[in-house]
Amino acid sequence: INAEYMGVATTIVFSSATLLFNFVLRTYVGTAGAYLSLSVMSLVLCGNLINLGSIPSSLQFLQYISPLRYSYESLVVNELTGQNFCWKYDSSPGRHCLQLVEGGVLCTSEYGFHPDRLVPNLGYLMVFIGGFVMAAAIAFHFSLKGLDRAE
Questions:
Q1: 127, 134 in Cβ contact below 8 A?
Q2: Is 101 helix (H, G, I), strand (E, B) or coil?
Q3: CB neighbours of 116 closer than 8 A, spacing ≥ 6?
Q4: pLDDT at site 81
Q5: Dihedral sign, CA of 51, 56, 60, 65?
């Protein structure tokens, strides 16, 4: 799969999943404080603010319910894989590179992301979209039933 198309596809699918996630969350959660805390928890557990390996083991299961985790991993892996980065420099004025690191190795060692999960992450995001669409349909169904009883 072409890297540019994979990045665009991940961005579009993630935007759709996030829109539906926020819609469903706001529909089911009544207060703004609870809504905000659940949104922040999703953001914290994606691997952007906290390295996935440093999340306490009792809370690691929560990272799997965050759609942001899958899209962030896909975008980072898509961007870094296939590129070489200078990891260590010498102290001379010319700053010559002492150690060159491939981007895929950097993803795995520093972020805990794996290059072979690029396409499955896109599939997980599609599953999230399906689940959020079903949850939104259920919310609409019950809200319409409530309107019928009010009349």
A1: no
A2: strand
A3: none
A4: 81
A5: negative
Amino acid at the residue 31: T
Based on the number of CB atoms within 10 Å of its own CB, is 102 exposed (0-12), middle (13-18) or buried (19 or more)?
Answer: middle
pTM of the prediction? 0.72
Q: Give the phi and the psi of residue 43 in degrees, each rounded to 5.
A: -70, -40
Question: pLDDT class for 150, splitting at 50, 70, 90?
Answer: low
Q: Are 133 and 67 in contact (CB under 8 A)?
A: no
Q: Is 23 left (phi over 0), alpha (psi -120 to 50) or beta?
A: alpha
Which of 69-73, 84-88, 97-101, 104-108 is modeled with the greatest confidence? Answer: 69-73
The answer to whether 97 and 86 are in contact (CB under 8 A) is yes
The CA R_g of the chain, rounded to the nearest whole Å, is 20
Question: Which two tokens mark 8?
Answer: 């665009």
